[in-house]
Amino acid sequence: MKPLRKDAILWIENTLFLKYGNMGWWPAESPDEVAIGAILTQNTSWKNVEKSIAVLRQNRHLNCCAISSISRDELAMEIRSSGFYNQKSLRLHSLCSKVCADYGSLDAMRNGISLDEARNYFSAMNGIGRETLHSILLYALDLPVFVMDKYTERVLTRMGFMIDMKNVSSVEESFLSALDHDVDRLKNIHAMLDAVAKDYCQSRPKCRECVLNQNCDYWGKEVIVP
DNA sequence: GGCCAGGCACAGC
DNA sequence: GCTGTGCATGGC
């Protein structure tokens, strides 16, 4: 197992870039939509989230102030397909109400807020854990954090790197310093790592077998050049 | 029908 | 501190 040294991280970045290039990533049209998607995707596949997003979009509820203006019951019905809808409607409604009241939108919030301010603001909220927080900070507010999710963990582990999930912050710190706290590179490396996970774990049995038996080759011809 | 999905909070040790 | 559990729908 390789430690996550700077050269290893740069190697991952360069190698994946050859296949995927600039992905930009996070399928959303506004910062508000990023945050909404981040809550909805908690322990849920993106396909189910997409259906909820479509309903919200259709009803013109895909922004914080619109969500804060409807009832929690109505919101719960609209996001049903994402599962955990009672829990998520509560989390989403309180987040959106606060953002709408304090800033109007996440787009407006983006101007001039510091990383520490934003981190404190969101982590005080119910239902915003580490991953959701970091997704919002990076993809909605353009602040430099590394997003560690189940896909990222799985791919890095399968690539043979030492990932200690009990010490996530040290992993995150390794990526942050290796990538010079560059927001665009942080966005893209997470996107590329997730793309690898999706490309190689599209069918669950295959992925499960791959993880359990450690016999799946992320570095086959399709992924890597050298 | 069984298992799992891009978490999180909270109770009980 | 760590582990187990509830939350719930939809796809395979």
Draw up the topology in text:
Elements: H1 6-20, H2 31-40, H3 46-58, H4 64-69, H5 72-78, H6 85-102, H7 106-109, H8 115-123, H9 130-140, H10 150-158, H11 168-178, H12 183-200, H13 204-213
This protein binds a DNA duplex (13 and 12 nucleotides) through residues 38-39, 41-49, 51, 80-88, 91, 126-132, 135, 147, 149-152, 166, 194, 197, 203-205, 208.
How would you summarize this macromolecular structure in one to three sentences?
With 226 residues, the protein is mostly helical. Helices cover 62% and strands 0% of the residues. It has two domains: 86 residues; 110 residues, Hypothetical protein, domain 2 (Endonuclease III, domain 1).
Question: What would your notes on this structure say?
Answer:
The chain has about 230 residues and is mainly α. The chain folds into two domains: about 5-25 and about 145-215; about 30-140, Hypothetical protein, domain 2 (Endonuclease III, domain 1), CATH 1.10.340. It is built from 13 helices and no strands. α2 (about 30-40) runs antiparallel to α9 (about 130-140) and α5 crosses α6 (about 85-100). The model is unreliable at about 220-225 (pLDDT under 50). The structure holds a DNA duplex (13 and 12 nucleotides).
